[in-house]
């Protein structure tokens, strides 16, 4: 029985492009695959026929020979394989290769796009930038310009990697798939194409400015909006501001990690602020008013109750940090630190001794403590 014309087998016209041949074959292979045609006894033979046609027409040299001599180009030893195109001793390898192609088409999207690298450029890497801000800047928020060392698209070749902006060419090793397959028994082993590195394309005349990478290293100034309420560990993502992709691929992202520096006056805990304020012994004893700073640069007057002790806290509502994602602002807590006077004059010492003599009932905490100490010692003696 005479062989059918390979173009008729795939249902395409002579002069069809490589993409048209491949598309027609994949459509035919999926349609005729034996696993999908259990009730059609001729499906396997037709599948192998389509595969044989594709093995010839996808190869530029074999296709040229077939266009000139027809099937005779592969008879009488011309094909090197007993009448089978491409020098195969049988159809087992062709079948496995075709099955792998069909599997890619049927399940490639589901499995994460195994279909190869045609037209696919490498995405640029994500970048990290550590940014220090003061507590005041974290309180109010700010617009800040940063210089990021990164890779940007090459202006000489418009990111294509080719001199003069020429289009990259399909890799001849993998036919644009980005992967090559090797037959090992019944199994097909797939690996990244060594010629194009998985891109599916090669640059015949690389751009001199970027050596064919499509990108160059450069410091780039970026204006960053730091929202009010950020704290150490806050991460800000700038989509597409990372490293440029290779040969026109998409850019990565830039992640800015915030570190809020230590403040001389305030300590922060989430949205609350704490400020330790020294007060004199007389103010703590008699009471009075003091002024304390607030993070917005203002002042607040605080009334100190008479008899206040060190460590006493007072709250200033809504005087803390703003919430990063909305909500009420935090509070500010004043912690009193009663100071003991130093460098006393003789007159001051005499007055304090006189005061001490009159203060037997004015120190309730001391009285309670030493009463407990006496009880402890007595119990130890017993």
TrEMBL record:
An example Gene Ontology molecular-function term: oxidoreductase activity
Positions annotated as CXXCXGXG motif repeat: 154-161, 171-178, 193-200, 207-214
Cofactor note: Binds 2 Zn(2+) ions per monomer.
Compartment(s): Cytoplasm
Keyword tags: Chaperone, Cytoplasm, DNA replication, Metal-binding, Oxidoreductase, Repeat, Stress response, Zinc, Zinc-finger
Domain remark in the UniProt entry: The J domain is necessary and sufficient to stimulate DnaK ATPase activity. Zinc center 1 plays an important role in the autonomous, DnaK-independent chaperone activity of DnaJ. Zinc center 2 is essential for interaction with DnaK and for DnaJ activity.
Family the UniProt entry places it in: Belongs to the DnaJ family.
Protein name in UniProt: Chaperone protein DnaJ
């Amino acid at each position: 029985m005479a062989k059918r014309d390979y173009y008729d087998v795939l249902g395409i016209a002579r002069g069809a492009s490589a993409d048209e041949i491949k598309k027609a074959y994949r459509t035919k292979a999926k349609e005729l695959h034996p696993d999908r045609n259990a009730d059609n006894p001729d499906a396997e033979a037709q599948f192998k026929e389509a595969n044989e046609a594709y093995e010839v027409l996808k190869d530029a040299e074999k296709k040229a020979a077939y266009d000139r001599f027809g099937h005779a180009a592969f008879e009488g030893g011309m094909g090197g394989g007993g009448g089978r195109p491409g020098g195969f001793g049988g159809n087992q390898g062709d079948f496995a290769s075709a099955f792998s192609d069909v599997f890619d088409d049927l399940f490639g999207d589901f499995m994460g796009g195994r279909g190869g690298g045609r037209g696919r450029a490498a995405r640029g890497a994500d970048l990290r930038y550590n940014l220090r801000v003061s507590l005041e800047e974290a309180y109010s928020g700010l617009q800040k310009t940063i210089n990021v060392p990164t890779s940007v698209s090459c202006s000489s070749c418009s990111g294509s990697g080719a001199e003069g902006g020429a289009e990259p060419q399909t890799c001849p090793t993998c036919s644009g798939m980005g992967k090559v397959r090797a037959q090992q028994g019944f199994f097909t082993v797939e690996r990244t194409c060594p010629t194009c590195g998985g891109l599916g394309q090669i640059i015949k005349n690389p751009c001199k400015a970027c050596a064919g990478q499509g990108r160059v290293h450069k410091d780039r100034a970026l204006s960053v909006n730091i929202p009010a309420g950020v704290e150490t560990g806050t991460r800000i993502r700038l989509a597409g501001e990372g490293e440029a992709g290779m040969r026109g691929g998409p850019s990565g992202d830039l992640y800015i990690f915030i570190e809020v520096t230590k403040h001389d006056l305030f300590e922060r805990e989430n949205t609350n602020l704490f400020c330790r304020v020294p007060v004199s012994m007389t103010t703590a004893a008699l009471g009075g008013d003091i002024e304390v700073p607030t993070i917005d640069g203002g002042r607040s007057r605080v009334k100190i109750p008479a008899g206040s002790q060190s460590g006493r806290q007072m709250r200033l509502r809504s005087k803390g940090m703003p919430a990063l994602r909305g909500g009420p602002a935090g509070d500010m807590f004043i912690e009193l630190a009663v100071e003991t006077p130093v460098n006393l004059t003789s007159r001051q010492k005499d007055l304090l001794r006189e005061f001490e003599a009159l203060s037997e009932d004015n120190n309730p905490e001391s009285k309670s403590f030493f009463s407990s100490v006496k009880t402890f010692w007595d119990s130890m003696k017993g």
